[in-house]
């Protein structure tokens, strides 16, 4: 694209939250850390509380989880964020209007696009739960043994607030503000590197 005021060529190449043209990925011994640049996110909330008669819909065939829980089915996932509120995830939908897709599934709910506001990092362990739980113990103030698969929490990680989703015994997702992507990657990678040493 040409900026006619300056005759300069503007580069409109899409970049990830970490500033690359491809998602960043790195391994630290048994742990691998990767940027999930293709994750679509949209928030969903009931317009009336469940007590006033609005029931939580099933979106993409996915029942919405209760307090502190996360669910997943195929490419879609959901996690609880507050009373009558959820974040809906869609793998591979980071470049489309995911909120419009979700709104068609839940027309009576309030839906807001969140993809560009957040960054998601996926952490996997090749040696079971041990290395992942050791990493969690270094980073967040919660008991990793009590934070099992299918659970979600919002917590502090260094100076940032993040969502942690325990996807499986050996997999954890960390979702934080996109503006803090570099700081979050640094915190995760430094802690993982120290465990490797």
- In order across it, which strands form the biggest sheet? 3-4-10-13-12-11
**What is the radius of gyration?**
18 Å
Average predicted confidence as pLDDT: 93
How would you spell out the order of helices and strands? EEEEEEEEHEEHEEEH
Q: Specify the overall morphology.
A: flat
- Put simply, the count of helices is 3
The CATH class is Alpha Beta
Verbal overview:
This protein is an alpha+beta fold. It has a single domain, classed as 2-Layer Sandwich (Gyrase A, domain 2), CATH 3.30.1360.120. Helices cover 18% and strands 37% of the residues. It has helices at 98-105, 129-139, 181-196; strands at residues 2-3, 8-9, 25-28, 31-35, 40-46, 70-73, 76-82, 85-90, 109-113, 118-125, 152-157, 160-168, 171-177. The strands form three sheets. The chain has a six-stranded antiparallel β-sheet, with helices on one face. The longest helix is centred in the last third of the chain and has 16 residues, at 181-196. The radius of gyration is 18 Å and the shape is flat.
Descriptive labels:
197 residues; alpha+beta; Gyrase A, domain 2; 6-stranded antiparallel beta sheet; 5-stranded antiparallel beta sheet; 37% strand; flat
């Amino acid at each position: 694209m040409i900026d006619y005021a300056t005759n300069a060529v503007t580069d409109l190449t899409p970049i990830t939250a970490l500033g690359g043209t491809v998602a960043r990925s790195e391994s630290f011994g048994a742990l691998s850390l990767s940027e999930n640049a293709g994750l679509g996110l949209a928030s969903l909330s009931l317009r009336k509380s469940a007590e006033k008669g609005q029931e939580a819909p099933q979106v993409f065939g996915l029942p919405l989880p209760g307090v502190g829980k996360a669910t997943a089915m195929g490419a879609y996932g959901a996690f609880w964020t507050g009373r009558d509120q959820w974040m809906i995830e869609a793998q591979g939908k980071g470049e489309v209007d995911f909120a419009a897709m979700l709104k068609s599934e839940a027309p009576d709910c309030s839906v807001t696009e969140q993809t560009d506001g957040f960054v998601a990092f996926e952490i996997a362990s090749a040696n079971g739960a041990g290395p992942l739980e050791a990493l969690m113990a270094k980073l967040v103030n919660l008991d990793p043994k009590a934070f099992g698969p299918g659970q979600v929490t919002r917590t502090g990680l260094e100076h940032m607030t993040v969502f942690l989703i325990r996807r499986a015994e050996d997999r954890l997702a960390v979702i934080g503000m996109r503006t803090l992507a570099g700081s979050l990657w640094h915190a995760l990678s430094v802690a993982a590197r120290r465990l490797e040493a």
